[in-house]
Design goal:
Number of strands: 2
Shape: globular
Strand order of the largest sheet: 1-2
Strand content: 5-15%
Radius of gyration: 11 Å
Helix content: 55-70%
Length: 52
C-alpha cells in the first residue's frame, strides 16, 4: 500500500475505535469496518452533534 492508503486506513481505524467506545458498531445494519472513510466520518460527526 502507498502512503495515502495507509493514512486513510489509520484515520478510519482511529474513528472506528472512538465509535466503538460509544457502543456504535454499525450504520444502517452494516459493520463500521466495511464502510468507507467518508461514511465513518459521517457517523462520527453525528456522534459529536449529540447532546452530552
Amino acid at each position: 500500500m502507498g502512503r495515502l492508503e495507509d493514512a486513510v486506513d489509520i484515520r478510519k481505524q482511529q474513528l472506528i475505535s472512538k465509535l466503538l467506545k460509544h457502543h456504535i458498531y454499525k450504520k444502517d445494519g452494516q459493520q463500521l469496518y466495511k464502510l468507507t472513510l467518508s461514511e465513518v466520518e459521517q457517523v462520527y460527526a453525528t456522534l459529536n452533534k449529540r447532546p452530552s
